[in-house]
Specification:
The protein is an alpha/beta fold. The protein contains four helices and five strands, in the order H-E-E-E-H-E-H-E-H.
Length: 104
């Protein structure tokens, strides 16, 4: 999904910048994926504020556990949360993301 968003940025009217990935597996922490750093879930609220994140994309069914107090902090920001379904085709996922970007 992230790779296709990056590839589509070349022809998009509204380019998307991927600020970070969130993964609760400790061995992935601080690694790079498509030019963005992977952070632990405990850092997401600070990242949203520090980078003025407009859109958070989560994939339904992913097993990342984010504590309620962290979600509360995220929901107090202006970031829009978009949930994609794992069984959606790539085109539908991209359309959902770009539509959310236009609204935020």
């Amino acid at each position: 999904m992230s790779k296709s968003l990056i590839d589509n940025n070349k022809s998009s009217k509204q380019p998307i910048e991927i600020t970070a990935f969130i993964d609760d597996e400790p061995w992935n922490n601080r690694t790079q994926v498509h030019g963005a750093t992977v952070f632990s879930p405990s850092e997401i609220s600070a990242l949203v504020r520090r980078h003025d994140v407009a859109l958070i994309i989560q994939i339904e069914g992913e097993s990342i556990s984010i504590a309620d107090n962290i979600w509360e902090g995220i929901l107090k920001t202006n970031a829009t949360l978009v949930t994609l379904k794992q069984n959606q085709d790539l085109t539908t996922m991209q359309q959902t993301v770009y539509q959310a970007c236009l609204k935020s």
